[in-house]
Amino acid sequence: MKTKIIYSLLIVLFTMSCSDDMLDVQNENAYNGETFFTTPAAYEEASTAMYTPLLHNGMYAREFYFIFDLLGNDADKNFPLQGGLLDFPLYTHTPNNGEITALFNASYKIIFRTNFVIDLMGKWETTIDTEIAQRQRIHGEALFLKSFANFLLVNLFGDVPLKRTVEDHEVLHDERTPKAEIWAAIETDLTEAISKLPVSYDDSGYGRATKGAAIALLGKSYLYQKKYAQAVIEFSKLTGGAFGYGLAPSLDDLFVNDVKTNETVFAVMHGEWQGWGVGNAYYLFGGQELWGGKATHGDRAMEYGFKDWWNVLLSDVLVDAFNYKDESGADYIDPRGALTYYSKDGVRGGDSDWFSGAYELDVISWRKYQRYENIESEGLPQSPINSHVIRYADVLLMLAESYIEGGSVADALPLINQVRARSGAFEYTSLGGQDEARTILRHERRIELAGEQSRFFDLVRWGILVQTINSEKAEQPAKDYHVLLPIPQAERDANPVLDAQVNNNWN
Questions:
Q1: Per-residue pLDDT tens for 1-55?
Q2: Sign of CA dihedral 18, 21, 27, 33
């Protein structure tokens, strides 16, 4: 009898142990979107993750400056340049170009992460004032970064699938969205971002999107759509004292010495950002969030440096742009040349103690974004110099352009002169008529923003890319379709609906 009772108890216990409740044991080390994001610290981590695709392949850690310095003919290939990067100075890039594919993918990674965070902020319930402020600020950052990624996509690829919500990313076979719709979404998102973002941060938040950055990007979006009156309104907000923007004493503060200045409106941080330390120096080949140790440093100094990898030179036409006529018709050498490039004679451009010996060649090499004023060689791709996406000088020139195109040429004069005076260039007494003022403004953007990846975007939006590139290059490589980048073949293979909308195997 005793044996039967024990056997019966074992059956009961075994049955209990095999019940659904008993088997459904939660792994305390496994997280998902519902279990991990429950604290302000976790939400802050999510917000930081929105920025990291800016350092992914195709973006500012490496390929972005190659693509657009070469396409815009600010830079020209040097003999070490190889692979898909050789396509850009020759305009031979195709839908299979790996750098373009990486840029396309990184842009959508930003959009996915920002949509995820926006959804997350909508689910964050709190009555604590500091958390409410944090929630609003993170939401604003997400809207800004999402708008920036859409800005890149609509300008570079035209009609592309617009991902409005996190659920949209579950739709794999999206149709292309008309550009007008994408621009409208950018305007809406940036307007909301402006209402949520702070004017500034303390040191721990340096580099995050600000109210001023969102205003500048909104103004830039209006300018690119030729909405000049709206652009003037937005840019003008940044010229008063409320935001504290101003020009740094020297371009070297931004591009050589990496000084924190109030000229920075938005930049991609390198060296250290949000507490990340510099890890593996070779993270640039895809290890940004994995084996690269969360490194954030930039690689342009190593890639362009004449005592480092020296993959590119300045184009001859860019160097020539620093030599022009002053208002009296006399030959003039713009002082910004010496801050932009090195030359053997130290006359056409800057000189360096390190520009000697085996490197004393009759060539012109980049000084901007290099550190040769302070160190002999990079040694590793780990420059801390920030990638300036929008700076105050650019804002002033975009405001000047908006005035010129809107017919208020006189209002543009002091803005252009303000930028020129910072570097010691002569100041214009008059810009002349609208056509002459337009020519001066476009030349000013060429030399002030040299090597900042603005030239290609400018030529496209001005409608003069093909004629300009073909007048500057003996090969005359640019074709009408080059005003857009090709839709990546990998994306077309994954999305047959979009593929069917691609014309001429390009866009």
A1: 444 443 443 333 334 444 455 455 555 555 556 667 889 999 999 999 999 999 9
A2: positive
Q: Which two structure tokens, joined as six digits, stand for 101? A: 């594919």
Query: Can you give the three-state secondary structure of 354-400, one letter per residue?
Result: CCCHHHCCCCEEECCCCCCCCCCCCCCCCECCCEEEEEHHHHHHHHH
Q: Cα–chain-centroid distance for residue 363?
A: 29
Predicted pLDDT at 2: 42
Q: How many residues are recorded in the chain?
A: 507
Structure-token pair, residue 58 = 């195709």
Contacts of residue 330, Cβ cutoff 8 Å, sequence gap at least 6 = none
Question: 59: number of CA atoms within 13 Å, CB side?
Answer: 27
d(CA 176, CA 158): 9
Strand ranges (DSSP E) for 152-263?
A: none
Looking at residue 394, its amino acid is: D
**For the ranges 58-62, 116-120, 283-287, 404-408, which has the lowest average pLDDT?**
283-287
Give the pTM.
Answer: 0.92
CA gap 409, 329 in Å, rounded: 21
Domains along the chain? Answer: 40-78+97-286+294-499 (1.25.40.390)
